[in-house]
Amino acid sequence: MLKIKSYVKVNSLAEAYELNQKKTARILGGMVWMKMGNRAISTAIDLSGLGLDAISENDDEFVIGCMTPLHDLETNEALNTYTHGAMKESLCHIVGVQFRNCATVGGSIYGRYGFSDVLTMFLGMDTWVELYDAGRIPLTEFVNMKKDNDILVNIIVRKEPLLTCYLSQRNIKTDFPVLTCAASVIGNEARTVIGARPARAMIVEDKKQILKNFRNMTKKQKEEAIEAFAEYAAENVPTAGNMRGSKEYRTLLVKVLTRRAWEAVGGMKNEY
Question: In CATH, what number is assigned to the domain containing residue 173?
Answer without folding.
Answer: 3.30.390.50
